[in-house]
Design a protein that fits this description.
The chain is of the alpha/beta class. The chain has helices spanning about 55-65, 80-85, 85-95, 105-115, 180-195, 200-210, 230-240, 255-270, 285-295, 310-325, 345-350, 370-390; strands at about 5, 10, 15, 20, 25, 30-35, 35-40, 45-50, 75, 100, 120, 130, 135-140, 150-155, 160-165, 215-220, 245-250, 275-280, 295-305, 310, 330-335, 355-360, 360-365. It contains twelve helices and 23 strands. Strand 1 and strand 2 form a beta hairpin. It is elongated, with a radius of gyration of 24 Å. It binds MU-OXO-diiron (FEO).
Length: about 400
């Protein structure tokens, strides 16, 4: 299915309705899409990105549908295979096409896809490529989310082709954003799972595109934004230093002791006017947990002790939070043990990427007693005081 964005600009990518896991890691509750675009100028034709190899046949059919009998340039914004994976097939069918990308991405494409060196044309930041009556201006936008990522601005139509930047894992038959709330949710999930570790670089890239007159943002996952303010404002907010008066509680319990403590803790937070998002780690969607980490001021992990250390599910949550580098300001641990525990030391040792102050943990021996519940109330008071001092309440 080929769809027209504007005269001589077509969406020729693939919708992957059935995808449920990305990179064998990230849940995709609403599927995804691998967007690719054809820009037909008066003299030359460019294909911007390709699709995941599982959907190569869709892209090739769409190119036929769109009447593309010649491709002069294949613009590779990003070497990850969900966008570059069909380049070798396109090169076979369009033998005169050149792969246009930056030097870093070129080398990665050679490493990942074994593309011959003579098929490339490299471009630098700010360089323009004329298609006749349309111009492609390349803008390096590094670390969204690999080091080689770049975007393309088409000044005649005021379109920014941003690849993963501003993307959303969302399969939809609508070409343009229809339901803003749904797209916001998918885009936030995408930001949390893919972009959040690169907050600083995202701010630099937002500044870099701020002078462009952008009427449309066409990313390589999810729908196209014809009101780009929606996603630009959301990215500014997510990537800012601002956090919310909210505690993310991610816990698991084996025999109920940790669960009782978490129940008491969550009630204590709510009574103090603090928002809570609670996740049970054996059943939770890790994407939802990642989204909650985007702007919560505080994270508290709850874990029983297994073989001296934390429950593996709690360790996984700590590892994930550490890798995603949220802007969390405060963290703590609630847990229990039967006969000995190094769970606190091991969990805090896994959170070194977080620039969070660790508030005094609460660990119960066996079933929680009155003293443990009092300690939990003290932790809730500590969090309240910290949130107040940070101006969040
Ligand atoms: Fe959608 Fe980083 O690839």
């Amino acid at each position: 299915m080929t769809r027209k964005l504007k005269p001589d600009i077509y969406a020729v990518g693939a919708i992957d309705w059935d995808a449920r896991l990305f990179d064998r890691l990230i849940p995709l509750p609403d599927g995804t899409s691998y967007n690719a675009y054809v820009v037909r100028g008066s003299q030359k034709t460019a294909l911007l990105d390709t699709v995941d190899p599982v959907k190569t046949h869709v892209l090739l059919n769409n190119l036929v549908d769109a009447g593309v009998d010649k491709i002069d340039y294949i613009i590779a914004h990003h070497a990850e295979q969900d966008h570059s994976g069909s380049i070798p097939d396109v090169l076979l069918i369009y033998p005169d096409a050149k792969v246009v990308t930056n030097p870093k991405c070129k080398q990665m494409l050679i490493d990942l896809l074994d593309i011959e060196e003579n098929r490339f044309m490299t471009v630098e930041d700010g360089q323009e490529l004329s298609l006749g009556n349309k111009t492609l201006r390349f803008i390096t936008t590094p670390w969204v989310h690999w080091p080689e990522t770049m975007s393309t601005y088409l000044p005649e139509d005021k379109i920014l082709f941003s690849c993963d930047f501003f993307g959303a894992h969302l399969a939809t038959s609508r070409l343009f954003v229809d339901d803003e709330a749904v797209v916001y949710e998918s885009a936030k999930r995408y930001y949390a799972e893919i972009m959040m570790p690169f907050r600083k670089q995202i701010n630099s890239n937002l500044a870099k595109i701020s002078d462009l007159d952008i009427k449309i943002i066409a990313p390589s996952h999810g729908p196209v934004y014809d009101q780009p303010d929606l996603i630009i404002r959301a990215y500014r907010q997510w990537a800012s230093d601002t956090v919310r008066n909210e505690v993310v509680v991610a816990y698991i319990s084996m025999h109920g002791s940790t669960a009782k403590m978490i129940d008491h803790f969550v009630d204590a937070l709510v009574e103090r006017g603090i928002d809570v998002k609670q996740f049970e780690l054996s059943t939770t969607d890790i994407g939802k947990l990642a989204m909650a980490l985007v702007d919560a001021a505080t994270v508290v992990l709850g874990s029983p002790t297994v073989l001296i250390g934390p429950h593996p599910s709690a360790a996984y949550a700590a590892f994930l939070a550490n890798a995603l580098r949220p802007k969390t300001k405060f963290a703590s641990i609630i847990g229990s043990f039967g006969w000995g525990s190094k769970a606190v030391e091991q969990l805090t040792g896994m959170l070194t990427n977080l620039k969070a102050e660790i508030l005094e943990p609460v660990i119960a021996k066996g079933d929680p007693k009155d003293t443990d519940y009092a300690a939990i109330d003290r932790l809730a008071d500590d969090i309240l005081a910290k949130h107040k001092a940070a101006g969040l309440i």
